[in-house]
Write a structure and sequence with these properties.
Helices cover 43% and strands 18% of the residues. With 303 residues, the protein is an alpha/beta fold. The strands form two sheets. Strands 1-9-8-2-5-3-4 form a seven-stranded mixed sheet. It has a two-stranded antiparallel ribbon with strand order 6-7. α1 (2-16) runs parallel beside α7 (160-170), α3 crosses α4 and α8 runs parallel beside α9. The radius of gyration is 19 Å and the shape is globular.
């Protein structure tokens, strides 16, 4: 297993050193292959789209589906290239992601015991590991947040090999800093409680289905249908009086995203975890209605 992991990592690292333009070139071929040759989850994508956009006609849904597969290929291309950014200067110079209001989180962290940023599968979530690299202000004005105070929460994969490969890839820009903030969602509560005296920023993917044995979940309205949701991040924020933000990572053009923080509450104890998550899904739905092709439609989100 370790040998195979090293072989795959070595191959990905060699390929990731190639220019981003090269990766975009093959991403189009990849999109065509999975969409038109392999028919990868085409039925799932169309079912999800028809349920999420009941007023759209079939022709429009097919257009969105085709555009989604193009975006899907670009996600993979960008993620592989991102894994080669062991030197964060490479990522910084590319300006792949640009904040619109990083100061909003800095202001919240100054007055709150901590911050929870609820992420989603909109845009390219695999780029969040470069968060401090996307600060393009003059060096004297850049964020003073320590990289290890940014906690990237992830849902473990069933394959230990791919779980390790993805860890290294997602944390590529901060590996040389000895990054310790990559935390499994299974250990999140324990970690948060043991660090409640520390000011941390938790980036939590929140639009996934709850674990099968989860007792901390709820049902919200999302894309015109009842949707089961995890409550973990919202519950922790509620308990610890954290500020909560929705993270919008919006594609502007190919190779450029805008990262916007939308505040849900300054003190989560003033809201219920359910109301926090409902507002999160309202904001996510607004993004999807503007850019429907930029969401991960290949998974059976509604079962």
């Amino acid at each position: 297993m370790k040998i195979m992991t090293k072989l795959v990592q070595g191959f990905l690292r060699a390929v990731s050193a190639l220019p981003l333009g090269f990766h975009y070139a093959w991403s189009g071929v990849f999109a065509w292959l999975v969409r038109d040759v392999l028919h990868y989850r085409r039925d799932v994508v169309m079912i999800n789209l028809s349920r999420a956009f009941p007023d759209k006609k079939y022709k429009e849904l097919r257009r969105i589906s085709d555009a989604f597969y193009k975006h899907f290929g670009e996600i993979l291309a960008e993620a592989i290239w991102f894994g080669g950014c062991r030197n964060p200067e490479r990522l910084h110079k590319k300006r792949l992601v640009e904040y619109t209001n990083l100061d909003a989180v800095e202001a919240a962290l100054a007055v709150s015991p901590g911050v929870v940023v609820l992420n989603s599968h909109f845009g390219n979530w695999e780029l969040t590991g470069g968060c401090l690299t996307y600060d393009y202000r003059p060096e004297s004005e850049r964020s003073k947040i320590d990289v290890n105070d940014i906690i990237a929460v992830y849902k473990p994969l069933s394959s230990k090999m791919w779980d390790e490969i993805m860890r290294v890839n997602r944390c590529a820009p901060v590996l040389r800093d000895g990054y310790t903030g990559y935390v499994s969602s299974l250990n999140l509560l324990r970690f948060a409680l043991s660090h409640k005296e520390d000011k941390k920023i938790y980036i939590i993917p929140a639009d996934q289905c709850p674990y099968r044995n989860s007792t901390v979940n709820d049902v919200v309205d999302f894309m015109h249908q009842p949707t089961r949701t995890m409550l973990g991040g919202a519950s922790i924020a509620h308990k610890l009086h954290y500020s909560v933000f929705y993270m919008s990572l919006t594609p502007v053009t190919r190779g450029h995203y805008e990262w916007t923080f939308k505040e849900i509450c300054r003190d989560a104890s003033a809201m219920t975890p359910h109301s926090i998550m409902q507002e999160y899904y309202n904001l996510l739905q607004a993004d999807l209605e503007k850019h429907p092709e930029n969401y991960l439609w290949t998974h059976k989100r509604w079962k």
